[in-house]
C-alpha cells in the first residue's frame, strides 16, 4: 500500500473509532461507513442478497466495519471481517466487536464454501489483484454464490495523475470481464446515482465524526493525505468520470 492509502485506511480508521466512541453509540455505524455505503445502498444490497438472521456474511476489505454492523442490525446476519490494515481491524473490533481477520482479499484465510454470503464494498479499486479478490469470494461463498460488490468504476480509463494514489478504477467493460473471469455472473446491477438521498441525520453524524477528527488531527500530514485522497475521489464522482456501481453476483 502507498503512504496515502496507509493514512486513509490504517491511521484514519483508528481515529474514526476514537471519534465515534467519544460521540456515542448512535455514531458508530455512520462513522464506520464513512468509506462507502449509504443506508439506501446497503438496504438494496441486503435485499438483493436476501440476507436473513443467523446467516454468515463475509465482508472482504471490511474497513471500520460499519456496513457489516448495518447488516447485522438490519437483518441479524453474523459478520466476519477480513481487512489488511491493522488500524482498521482494531477500529472494527473496538466499535463492533466482530471477528476480524487481518489478511488480503486475494488470500482469504477461510475454507471453501464456508460462508452463506459475502460483500466487498469500495475495495476492488484499491487493490492491484482484482481478479484474485473476486476469485477468493467465489471460492469461499457456498452455492449459489450470494456475492455483492460496490465498485468505483471509470467511464473511460482515468489518467494516472487524476487517480488517488494507489487506486485503479476498472472500466465498466473491465469489470464485466473480471466478473466472468472469476467464474461469476451478474444477477443484478444498480448505479448508486439512482439511489434515494442520504438521510440528513446520517450525514449530520458523519460530519460530526469528521469534525471531531479534524479538530484533533487536522494539522497532521496523515490527515491532509487522507483528505486529499477522498477529495480526489469526490471530484471524479462529481465530474461523472467515476461512478459507484453495485453488483449482485452468483456462481456462473
Ligand atoms: C474505501 S475503504 C472501504 C471500507 C469498507 N468496505 C466500507 O465500505 O466502509 C477500502 C478498504 O479496502 C481495504 N483493502 C485495500 N486493499 C485490500 C485488499 N487487497 N484486500 C482486502 N481489503 C483491502 C482497505 O484497507 C480499506 O479498509
UniProtKB/TrEMBL annotation:
Keywords: Methyltransferase, Transferase
Gene Ontology biological process terms from the UniProt entry: methylation
Pfam families: Methyltransf_11
GO molecular function annotations of the record: S-adenosylmethionine-dependent methyltransferase activity
Methyltransferase type domain span: 58-148
InterPro entries for the chain: Methyltransf_11 (IPR013216), SAM-dependent_MTases_sf (IPR029063)
Signal sequence coordinates: none
Protein name: Methyltransferase family protein
Protein source organism: Mycolicibacterium chubuense (strain NBB4)
Amino acid at each position: 500500500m502507498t503512504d496515502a492509502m496507509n493514512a486513509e485506511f490504517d491511521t484514519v480508521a483508528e481515529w474514526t473509532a476514537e471519534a465515534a466512541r467519544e460521540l456515542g453509540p448512535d455514531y458508530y455505524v455512520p462513522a464506520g461507513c464513512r468509506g462507502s455505503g449509504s443506508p439506501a445502498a446497503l438496504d438494496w444490497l441486503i435485499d438483493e442478497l436476501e440476507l436473513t438472521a443467523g446467516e454468515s456474511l463475509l465482508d472482504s476489505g471490511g474497513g471500520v466495519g460499519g456496513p457489516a454492523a448495518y447488516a447485522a442490525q438490519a437483518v441479524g446476519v453474523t459478520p466476519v471481517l477480513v481487512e489488511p490494515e491493522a488500524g482498521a481491524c482494531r477500529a472494527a473490533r473496538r466499535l463492533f466487536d466482530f471477528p476480524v481477520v487481518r489478511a488480503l482479499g486475494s488470500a482469504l484465510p477461510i475454507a471453501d464454501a464456508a460462508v452463506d454470503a459475502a460483500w466487498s464494498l469500495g475495495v476492488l479499486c484499491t487493490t492491484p489483484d482484482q481478479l484474485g479478490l473476486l476469485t477468493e469470494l467465489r471460492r469461499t461463498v457456498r452455492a449459489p454464490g450470494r456475492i455483492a460488490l460496490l465498485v468505483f468504476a471509470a467511464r473511460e480509463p482515468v489518467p494516472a495523475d487524476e487517480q488517488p494514489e494507489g487506486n485503479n478504477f476498472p472500466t465498466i467493460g473491465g469489470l464485466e470481464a473480471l466478473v466472468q473471469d472469476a467464474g461469476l455472473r451478474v444477477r443484478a446491477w444498480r448505479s448508486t446515482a439512482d439511489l434515494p438521498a442520504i438521510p440528513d441525520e446520517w450525514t449530520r453524524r458523519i460530519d460530526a465524526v469528521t469534525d471531531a477528527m479534524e479538530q484533533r488531527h487536522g494539522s497532521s500530514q496523515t490527515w491532509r493525505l487522507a483528505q486529499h485522497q477522498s477529495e480526489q475521489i469526490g471530484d471524479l464522482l462529481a465530474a461523472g468520470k467515476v461512478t459507484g456501481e453495485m453488483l449482485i453476483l452468483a456462481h456462473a
